[in-house]
Amino acid sequence: MPKIGNIGFVQKSIKENQFKIKKKFGQNFLTDASILKRIVDAAMLDKDTAVIEIGPGLGALTELLCEAAGFVLAYEIDQDLIPILNQNLKEYTNYKIVLEDILKADVLRDIALYFKEYKKIYVVANLPYYITTPILLGLLSKNLPIERYVMMMQLEVADRICGKPSTKDYNALSVWIEYRAKAIKICKVPRSVFVPAPNVDSAVVRLDVYEELPIKALDEELFSKLLRQCFVQRRKTLYNNLSLAYDKDKINKMLEDLGISPSVRAEVLSLDDFVRMSNYLTQN
The domain that contains 252 carries what CATH number? Predict the structure, then answer.
C-alpha cells in the first residue's frame, strides 16, 4: 500500500512543511489508500505506458503511478508543492513535475519531449473540481494521442459524463463525451476521505477514447455548437431551443426530413440523432 496515501502521512507532510492549503487551486488531498489503488487498477497500467497526471498534490497517486507505469508527467500549478513532491517521491526516478497550468500547457509538445519511447499514453488524475470540465474538453478536443482517461471528479460531473438518454443527468456534455469515448463510472468516493473534506462527494470515471469514431460529425465545431443549443433550456422542446439560433423554416424542414418530432426534448435523443442533425446542417 502507498506510504503517501494515508491520513497520517498527509497531516504530517502538511505540518512539517508548513504548507497552507489553497482553496483557489481546489486542493483536497485523498487519504484512502484503497481508493488510490482502485484508480490505478482501473487504468490498467504497465511499463510501456506513460501517464499524464494533473494536480499531483502531495504525490499519493503519483507514487502508485510511478510503481505501475513507465513514466509519469505531472502538471502542478502550486509552486509550494514542488519541493514537497520531490521529497515524497525521492525513491523514484521515472517522473517529471512540470510547474504549469494544464489549461495553458502545450501538452502535445510535452508528449513529444517526454514520451518518445512509450507505446501508450493515459491520463490518470484527481482533477481539481473547479476546472474539471474545461480540462477534459480541452484535452479531448485537441485530438492528442491519449488512449484512456481515469479521473476522479465531483460526483455530479461524473453523473453527467456518464449520463444516458431520458435521464436527469443527460446533457450536452454526456453526448459530447459519448461521441469521443466510452465512459464508465468506476466507483463513488465519499467526501470524508479527503483533507480538507470538500462539500461534495466524488466519483472515479474511466474514458476509453475511440481510435476511430463510430459515428462522425462532418463539422465538429458545428456539432458542438448544436449540442449546446439543443440543451440551452432543458424543459423546452427541441424546436424551440433550435429556433433561438437557427432559421425556423430550416429547422422545420430538417426535423421533418430526419423523422424527428419537433415537440421532443433533447434529453430523449441519441448520439446518432445529434450527429444526423449536425451533418444535415453542414450539408444544407
Answer: 1.10.8.100
